[in-house]
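This section describes the prediction task in plain terms. A model, or a person checking by hand, is given the sequence of a single protein chain and must write out its three-dimensional structure as a string of tokens. No templates, partner chains or ligands are provided. The sample shown here is typical of the held-out split.
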Amino acid sequence: MRLKSLLCACLFALSVCAGAQTTVSIAPDAASREDVKKLFDVMASREQMTQMMQQLFAQMQSLNREQLKKKHPEVTEADLARMDRESEDLIKNFPLDEMLNDMVPVYQRHFTKSEIDALTAFYSSPTGQKFLHEMPAVTAETMRAVYPRIQTEIDGALKRSEQKTDAPQK
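The expected answer:
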């Protein structure tokens, strides 16, 4: 249940951000579609996105199971297993290639051809490749490190909201 809410919030935020980007035109010195796709290939963007999604869902799944059981004691292991399968299906069928295609004009709006070429050169270097290789682990560790703080803040906000709702109206 919480997984669906978080996923919906993330997708909504992505769509708002994507909508906000459409007002900027592509610069005359922008990189070509092929230049941007080459950068994505060097960065292993598809693989990175797949790994990050898998880690994000695994993180959310392990962190939310206990809380879900506390808030909804009626949830059975079969329900949790079904939710796990649905999450796995979502990840398997996520339109990553289409998302990467959607990202090309965003990169074209924000980076010139020379900047895309410089990024491609950097990510082709040993340091760039190490950065790309380490980012999934860094991201996963960061999520584990900050999630309790985020959860505490969200729980506090929900509690304050419930208190305001339960307080008598003047």
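For orientation: The chain has a mean pLDDT of 81.
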